[in-house]
Structures are given as C-alpha cells and as structure tokens.
Amino acid sequence: MLSAKQLRKLVLIFLGFALAPRSAYAQPLPQTFWTIEAKIAQADHVVVGTIAKVSRKTIVAPGGPDKIGVIYTDGQFEYTVTLKVGEVLKGNLKGTVDDLRPVHCLGTDERYEEWSKAQTLMLWFLGPTPKADEQRSWDTVLLGKPVAAEAIFYRRSAPPMFSQDFTVLKDDEAVLARARAYAKTSTKVLPNHGIRIPQAVSRQTGPAGPSPRKR
C-alpha cells in the first residue's frame, strides 16, 4: 500500500470508471480516461502542432486478399503523418517530425487528410527519438473544430477531460492552459498511478468515443 506522501509523487496516469449502464439490466462498462498531466508525464516530448503531410499506402486493396488469403471488403491501409511543430511544451523537438509510427486502418480513414488540409491544431505526446529503422510512438488530443470525416467515429474523446485534481477541462483553452502549466514542472518521464472513481464523477465528461489510436 502506498503512503499519501508516495502518492503525491506519482502522476495520475488514468482514471478508471465504471460507467453508468443505459438500462437497469445492463452491466456497467469500464472506461479509462487519461488526465492531461498523465499524458504529459509519460511523454518525452509534448508539442502543439499540425499535420504537415499525410501519405497513404494500400496494404490490401478493397475486396482483395491479404498474404494468407483473408478477404478484406474495405481493404487495409497505412497512414504516415509528418508533424509540424508550432509550440514546444516539453522536450526539444522543433521544425518537422517525420519519424512517427504509421497508423494501420481497416478501410480508408479520411480524417488524417482532412486534419492536414484544415490545419487542425493538436496537442502531441511523443516518445523518445527512435533507433534506426524504428518509428516514434505518439498520441494526440485534438483541438479546434471537428472535420467532416470525424462524424463516423462518434465524438472526440477530449475535451472535455479531467485534470488530476478532478477539474473538468471543458474546452481547448482550458486543456492548453493546464498543459502549459504542468509541462513546466514535468521535464522528465515520471511515474504514474491509476485509480477508480465514482460514476457520479465520471459522468462529468460523458462516455468517450473513439480517438486516434494510441501508438
């Protein structure tokens, strides 16, 4: 059991919820929400930026078979993005970052092209500089107005989102303000801790829809 002093040294990396069921007979569904501080704490670099370039590679054409003969009606695709850094919150990345891990999709995903075209602002959480022939891990929180292609993925997972003191960050400005403030104190990758909180608290952000995959 960790002491209160030890817990204060940890960053709440996620908040685990038992979401309220939709009916009296449904089972509660577990849901994990990451605090903004946790995302920053686990990252080697945190920046605000946009997608400068997107390349799409067809792995399996729609209706075609893969290498072992499995047919994919919608095909398989790989998206590779190049990040244009606008503001550095943590780390020392500048300019463009083109070593990001590709995203693999069943079917096409037009969001990446649309985010690039709209210059959608994102808060990027990046891993360390990769070794030769490897790619950098990354994750994002989307800011600004949604693009049309997001509609089929339900709503964005954030904002709103929690801060580790249970404050609900309701808009882009609140998320960025907390990120900028916390990043000044998080110059290294830090330990983290997960907790489960009551349904009444979890409802403040609502159920999270699909977001860009965690890399």
Structure overview:
With 215 residues, the chain is α+β, with helices and mostly antiparallel strands. It has 5 helices and 13 strands. The protein has one domain. It has helices spanning 4-8, 36-42, 111-118, 172-183, 199-202, and strands at residues 11-19, 29-33, 45-60, 64-65, 71-72, 76-90, 96-97, 103-106, 122-126, 138-142, 161-162, 168-169, 192-197. Strands 3, 6, 7, 8, 9 and 10 form a 6-stranded antiparallel β-sheet that branches. Helix 2 (36-42) crosses helix 4 (172-183). The longest helix has 12 residues, at 172-183. The two termini are 31 Å apart.
The biggest sheet amounts to: 6 strands, antiparallel
Helix share bin:
10-25%
Radius of gyration, taken over Cα atoms and rounded to an integer in Å = 19 Å
Order of helices and strands: HEEHEEEEEEHEEEEHEH
Unreliable stretches covering 5 or more consecutive residues:
4-10, 13-26, 207-215
Counted beta strands: 13
| Shape by Cα distribution | globular
How many structural domains in the coordinates? 1
